[in-house]
Request: fold
Amino acid sequence: MKKLIFTFLVLFVLQASQAQKPLYTFPLGVQTYTFRNHLPKDVAGTLDKIKEMGFTEIESGPPQGMSAETYKRMCDERGIKITSTGAGYEQLVNNPQEIADRAKILGASYVMCAWIPHKSGNFTFENAKKAVEDFNKIGKVMKENGLTFCYHDHGYEFQPYGKGTLLDYIIQNTNPDYVSFEMDVLWTLHGGGDPVKLLKKYKDRWKLMHLKDLKIGVQGDLTGHTPAENDVVLGTGQADFPKIFKIAKKVGVQHCFIEDESNQEMVNVPKSVAYLKSLK
Reply:
């Protein structure tokens, strides 16, 4: 009887201990597009604010008119690592080596693309097919430079195709050696996707994640656009972040970046950080 009681107590203590472990264990990162109304006007002040909020890494490129070397130095002085940087589709197609060189100066490990050019509201198979061809070429250059190329989904790729969607087509037809993916939680939901199912389905293809929440009650579509007020504080919208983080860690997501596209970023972001820290 004493042995059973002892075993029960040990199990209880272990379960209680596990329940108190932080669920969010990724480095605290932010996509600097969040501060698009501040960074161009005051780079130093905005980086100071990013540091004060507790962020240790960012997804970012140098503000217009500033060299990659200067921006990297300013981030280094504040203990902020530029883990990932982005570039436009045309830039990547026309001169991937130039983008790779800039990423290396910034100290980034990842280069992301967040939009495939297409006629508004009409993302087609031809658009997806061309993107696959371009991404494989871009990704090869990035790999040769020690970088990982990621495509960031934006909702419009959930156009039905075959037994799945055009996002399925893109993932299945890009070379895993050259192309990885960054899941944007809000845009995945907005396009009708299920973040947890997609993480499970494509496992190690996902390397990065944008943490954004979609306002409750909003019905998405395939446009890749939604009003700013539909971007809400993490944990107050439609995303099931506890489930997402549990799966994300298992399948190999490496870095997560809060991105707040609302016009209340200075209020919302600290609340989103507090939410992440509260998860056990």
In short: The domain at 51-278 is CATH 3.20.20.150 (TIM Barrel). The chain has one domain: 51-278.
